[in-house]
Design goal:
This protein is of the alpha/beta class. The chain has an eight-stranded parallel β-barrel with strand order 1-2-3-4-5-6-7-8, surrounded by seven helices. Strand 4, helix 11 and strand 5 form a beta-alpha-beta unit. Helix 4 packs antiparallel against helix 16 and helix 13 packs parallel to helix 14. The radius of gyration is 20 Å and the shape is globular. Bound molecules: flavin-adenine dinucleotide. Flavin-adenine dinucleotide binds next to strand 4, helix 13 and strand 7.
């Protein structure tokens, strides 16, 4: 039991509680998957083979479904996701539902993503106790090139109608979210697309967040310019309540590669420690402004979660404050999510669902993330091993 646990009553390492919704067989399976993911070269090769196989129409879905899909995906339909949400709900953990489709250049796919997002928001509205929030990606609603050109201030006349369509769809989703009483969180993407996304989401927040933070933007604190951005957002919030989902950022390698290709300065903090410092600084800024800002602490980082929880306790803020939530990805950091929920905080598991074929980029990102940069898979393996050992000892009566 850690000192912090004794002082705050919050236990973020309790694997017995954290994995109570997983059978031993599921945990053994998860252990193997995380073990395999540590082989960075293998993951890169399999991701390449996987996307080629899907493009050629080869039947790889059963393998995906039984491996990465089983671990990181909440199913392929809304009904399947609801089943997972009900299971999580028994432990006080709610759902941030994500339709796991990624950027598309195809107009028909953008329209079908828009319809699917609408259906998802309505569905969440019907099951608000279990699914109070949903996530969307704007590159699924208009092609990445549109956001890129708009961010660079060079939107061509040929792409202008597509941009306008993207704006119209995003506004319609925000209005539907208000109508259904569902929180809508817009994911953050690559820095060269993000300028236009920020501009649009900030404008829409001013329109729909008059009373409550319903629409949330996402801020990636691995970017050197983002602390200033958060300060600016807080300064500009006149007459509305911004929603901020704070993440560290998922595209370190891609961002650095892209900057190097174009001869631009690296937009990412030089190391993990600098990212951590920036994250916690932004966290404190948002917590201090909590009466006026919606904050979603979206991280698997135990220290950041603990800092936020401690602040809330020390300041005597209600742990169920409607402006505060924590969020972790489905299949990851369960002891954190379950520990925070048990301590009385609002926790959303980010639960992607959707057809495997279209969810492949999401799954391959999870695979890469667990194989490289951070020690995420190491952390997951330690937790899972501890729990498997505990169950084994209990079974053998030791
Ligand atoms: C609920 C939820 C929603 C998310 N939504 C988004 C989203 O919309 N957009 C998005 O981009 N990501 C998103 N992510 C992913 C997130 O950005 C991180 O990639 C992931 O959560 C790991 O960071 P961490 O804070 O959980 O944990 P940690 O393991 O403490 O941190 C790992 C992170 O630190 C940073 N980092 C690692 N090494 C370095 C280095 N050498 N230099 C600088 N920084 C480094 C990277 O951001 C890396 O992902 C989301 C995550 C969650 C939990």
């Amino acid at each position: 039991m850690s000192v912090l646990h004794v002082a705050t009553g919050i236990d973020l390492d309790n694997t017995a509680w954290g994995y109570s919704y997983r059978s031993t067989e599921e945990l053994r399976w998860a252990w193997w998957i995380f073990r395999l993911l540590r082989w960075g070269g293998l993951v890169k090769a399999l991701n390449g083979v996987g996307s080629l196989a899907l493009r050629w129409g080869l039947p790889v879905e059963p393998v995906l479904r039984a491996t990465l899909g089983r671990l990181f995906l909440g199913g392929e339909t809304l009904e399947e996701a609801l089943r997972v949400a009900k299971n999580l709900g028994q432990y006080g953990v709610q759902v941030l539902l994500d339709y796991a489709v990624e950027a598309s250049e195809e107009a028909s796919e953008q329209e079908s993503a828009f319809l699917a997002y609408q259906e998802m928001i309505r569905f969440a509205g019907q099951h608000r106790e279990l699914i109070p929030s949903v996530a969307v990606k704007l590159t699924a609603l208009a092609p990445p090139l549109v956001w890129k050109q708009k961010s660079a201030g060079r939107l061509s006349s040929a792409l202008t109608p597509l941009y306008e369509k993207g704006v119209e769809r995003t506004r319609a989703l925000a209005q539907l979210a208000v109508q259904e009483g569902v929180i809508l969180m817009v994911d953050a993407e690559e820095s060269w697309l993000q300028g236009a996304i920020d501009e649009l989401v900030e404008g829409l927040m001013a329109e729909v967040n008059k009373e409550h933070p319903i629409l949330y933007t996402t801020v990636q604190m691995y970017r050197r310019d983002r602390l200033e951005y958060v300060q600016g957002l807080l300064r500009r919030m006149h007459g509305y309540k911004p929603g901020i989902k704070l993440v560290r950022g998922a595209y370190v390698e891609k961002e650095r590669r892209h900057a190097a290709e174009y001869g631009w300065p690296d937009p990412i903090h030089p190391d993990k420690v600098s990212t951590d410092i920036a994250y916690d600084q932004a966290l404190m800024l948002c917590l201090e402004a909590l009466s006026e800002v919606g904050l979603c602490v979206a991280t698997h980082n135990r220290t950041s979660c603990m800092k936020a929880a401690q602040y809330v306790i020390m300041e005597g803020i209600d742990r169920q404050h409607p402006h505060l939530s924590f969020s972790q990805l489905y299949g990851m950091a369960d002891p954190l999510s379950f520990g925070l929920a048990k301590a009385g905080f609002r926790v959303y598991k980010y639960l992607p669902f959707g057809p495997l074929r279209r969810a492949f980029p999401y799954l391959s990102r999870r695979a890469e993330e667990n194989s490289s940069l951070s020690d995420q898979s190491g952390r997951e393996l330690r937790w899972i091993s501890e729990e498997l050992e505990r169950r084994q000892k209990r079974k053998s009566g030791k």
